[in-house]
Amino acid sequence: MLEIINNFTVLNNQSKSQKQTNKPDFDFLQPLRKWLDSLEIQNRKLAHFIAKLIPADCPFERDIVLRGHKLAHIPPLCKINPLYEQFVGLRFRALCYLVDQCGEDIQSYC
Fold first, then answer.
1. Which domain holds residue 72?
2. Most buried among 8, 19, 48, 96, by the most CB within 10 A?
3. What predicted TM-score, i.e. pTM, was given to this entire model?
């Protein structure tokens, strides 16, 4: 019984070490992610530009309908974008700047 437990422990440790080696050593998008996360919005024109450029919801999600029958559904593809969270955060910071610093109504962007 002790031998079985030892064999299981050895196999388990080997599988853990294999999983750790499968992780990429370098995320080439990390510098871009850090740069996008560190951008500070300090300009009204830039804030408006960002709020207009980055959509509030995913524009790619569609239902394909023919004669009232749903044939297919195209899921939102935005979350496939590896920088999706950074762009959403940047848009949020731009909208917060417009409200907090400029006192503007952002309802037209929502």
1. 42-110
2. 48
3. 0.66
